[in-house]
Amino acid sequence: MNTSQVEQLALIFKALGDPTRLRILQTLRCCSPDVEIDEEGQCRPAGSLSVGEVCCGLDQAMSTVSHHLKELRIAGLIRTEKRGRWIYCSVNPEALEPIQAFLDGDCSPVPENALVRETAAPEPASTSVR
Amino acid sequence: MNTSQVEQLALIFKALGDPTRLRILQTLRCCSPDVEIDEEGQCRPAGSLSVGEVCCGLDQAMSTVSHHLKELRIAGLIRTEKRGRWIYCSVNPEALEPIQAFLDGDCSPVPENALVRETAAPEPASTSVR
DNA sequence: ATCATAATTCGAAATATGCAGAAATATCGT
DNA sequence: ACGATATTTCTGCATATTTCGAATTATGAT
Fold first, then answer.
1. B12 CA to chain A: closest CA distance, Å?
2. Is the pLDDT of residue A108 over 70?
3. Is A78 helix (H, G, I), strand (E, B) or coil?
4. Between β-strands A86-91 and A78-83, what pairing exists: parallel, antiparallel or unpaired?
5. Closest CA in chain B for residue A87
6. Which of A39, A80, A128, B53 has a beta carbon 3.0–4.6 Å from B33's, enabling a disulfide?
7. What pLDDT sits at residue A105?
8. Which pLDDT value is given to residue B105?
9. H or E element, residue B130
10. Measured between alpha carbons, how far is A51 from A83 in angstroms, rounded to an integer?
11. In angstroms, what CA-CA distances link A62 with A37, A51, A57, B4, B129?
12. Are A63 and A52 contacting, i.e. CB atoms less than 8 angstroms apart?
């Protein structure tokens, strides 16, 4: 992982590193209707909730929820689509791929300037990855 | 996921949500020798690096690295073991399990007070999870 | 006992974050 | 055009975070 990849991944993790945002995501994943037309004939993207719907599942001001949704959008974790007066949010499943790659142990080129020390401390054994 | 589970997960994500900490983890995962004895006869836990070794792979003050290691330790992402003058750090693979569970879509009981609204906005279709 | 080294803790400065209320913007229905 | 509704943006404030250097603690070597 090069520097910008690390920073990109850190951004995703940071977006997930807040209980409110995590709850928003869970709400979107678990409470979104998977049909496009509800009983009032309203049309919405499949698997999405409006900002207000997300909001009423959480005890927080709408301005706060809106702020967190923006963070999630910037991190690429959700997508939004405006339909008339409502903005519908849905999870972007692709955004979780870098996390999976990280979990699966992406041990490529190694960070900045690896392990090169001039003084002190025992050198790691020569079998180390470098 | 109940409230405390969400908060626990958020803590882990928050710990991962910093480029420096991510680099530390990658250093530990990729640069730790897997043998216990190095060429100088020094003994260390398998798959570990001393704080100084971690530090010299990153352009940051040791006090900073120490601080981040503490955060990672609190989040359960790494373990540390003191041997003489050195403290050896290694990744705790179990800590990543909750993340995997999250990725695999743990859609249990749903957050706080789900989707119960009194006014406004189209109700989600009746097929929704509730 | 003294010294050098490894690491943590402390203190301070700069910056970022979470939150909510008020104002602004956009859209729909009448 | 007007009022109601959905959402964002702005503003202010309290709190948290990142970072470093200096002081401190712990250990091993001489």
1. 7
2. no
3. strand
4. antiparallel
5. B121
6. A128
7. 83
8. 82
9. none
10. 12
11. 25, 8, 11, 23, 23
12. no
Q: How far is B88 from chain A (nearest CA, A)?
A: 11
Q: Does A91 touch chain B (CB under 8 A)?
A: no
Distances (CA, A) of B54 to A27, A83, A120, B7: 39, 50, 13, 29
Residue B71 beta carbon within 7 A of nucleic strand D: yes
DSSP annotation of B57 reads: T
- Residue B65 token pair: 């690295």
Which one, of B49, B71, B38, lies nearest residue A110 by Cα?
A: B49
- Edge-to-edge, what's the strand order for the sheet holding A86-91? A49-50, A86-91, A78-83
Decide if A38 contacts A83 (C-beta within 8 A): no
User: pLDDT digit string (tens) for B45-85?
Assistant: 999 999 999 999 899 999 999 999 999 999 999 999 999 99
| One-letter identity of residue A13 | F
CA of B64 to C1' of C10 (A): 13
Give dist(CA A26, CA B2) in Å, integer. 11
- Tell me the β-bridge partners of B86: B83
Cα torsion B38, B43, B46, B50 to 10°: value is: -90
This prediction has a pTM of 0.85
Helices (H), A1-130: 3-16, 19-31, 51-56, 62-74, 97-103
Whether residue A130 has pLDDT greater than 80: no
Distance CA B22, CA B72 (A): 10
Partner residues linked to B78 by β-bridges? B91
CB contact under 8 A, A59 and B22: no
